[in-house]
Design goal:
Rossmann fold, 7 strands, about 45% helix, about 15% strand, binds adenosine-5'-diphosphate, binds magnesium ion
């Protein structure tokens, strides 16, 4: 089982879009895939057509009360695929503060996933992180076997990745675990924009073959599909955005097999 934290402390870099679409593409190939919405904004949940305000229990319940609410209780199947969602909720916003006094606060998600997968098997788990490096994101990193870092080809990308790197090093030292970088993904790429090409080249130079060959181009169909509550990969297969994520799924499978 591969557990991938989709992480970047910057918002709007396509973390949620990547989790939803990569997950959908893998599920369409018959791979059992679990999507975990760890962001209080619950964009992944809404984007998959689940209205979180109507939920009695969601991911915050699992993190706060793991003995009462196991992960299995909150799961929703998506579109008849082997695709499952652990929905997020606005209440995740104060979950960090409420977990603070507990010694196991960074391990809650990892324990919940371990519990779940004792009874159910998954090939892939994607954790959609909030745009911060707080306790929720720590939970994701601690639970993950791999990190996937989406980034726009913008100048600030470097500073952001430095603090992310520092946090990963600090966490792996203090919590004694290992997590591997699955890859850095260039998103929101605009064809014919010289600045994008220049910065993308710099990111490739710095991260070498850790940068996915696949690039996700800016495509208005991607945001349109959000309104439909379906990932572009399921909503409009021929859209460039859908084809980019299909190519990414292919590349991710190759990397995981290495
Ligand atoms: N390839 C793309 N082309 C056009 N719009 C995109 C693309 N990827 C994401 N978006 C849009 O950009 C916004 C931010 O994406 P999102 O996945 O929510 O980022 P994050 O989770 O990192 O905050 C969303 O409205 C989304 O629909
Ligand atoms: Mg998001």
């Amino acid at each position: 089982m591969n557990v991938v934290a989709v992480v970047n402390q910057k918002g709007g870099v396509a973390k949620t879009t990547t989790a939803a679409n990569l997950g959908a593409c893998l599920a369409e190939r018959g791979l059992r895939t679990l999507l975990i919405d760890l962001d209080p904004q619950a964009n992944l949940t809404v984007g998959l057509g689940v209205p979180w305000p109507e939920l009695d229990v969601a991911l915050h319940s699992v993190l706060l009360d793991p003995d009462e609410v196991p992960l299995s209780v909150i799961l929703r199947q998506i579109e008849g695929l082997p695709l499952y969602l652990a929905p997020g909720h606005l209440d995740l916003a104060h979950t960090e503060a409420l977990m603070m006094p507990h010694a196991d606060k960074a391990y809650r998600l990892r324990n919940a996933i371990e519990d779940l997968t004792r009874h159910q098997e998954y090939d892939w788990v994607f954790i959609d992180c909030p745009p911060s490096l707080g306790t929720l994101t720590q939970n994701a990193i601690v639970a993950a076997t791999h990190l996937l870092i989406p980034t726009e080809p913008k100048f600030y990308a470097f500073a952001g990745m430095d603090s992310l790197n520092k946090m990963i090093v600090a966490l792996t030292k203090s919590l004694r675990f290992r997590v591997e970088l699955l890859g850095v993904l260039l998103t929101m790429f605009e064809r014919g924009t010289r600045l994008h090409a220049t910065i993308a080249a710099e990111i490739r130079e710095r991260f070498g073959d850790k940068v996915f060959q696949t690039v996700i181009y800016k495509n208005v169909r991607v945001s349109e599909s959000e309104v439909e509550g379906r990932p572009i990969a399921l909503f409009d297969r021929r859209a460039p955005g859908a084809q980019n994520y299909e190519a990414l799924a292919e590349e991710v499978l190759l990397r995981a097999a290495r």
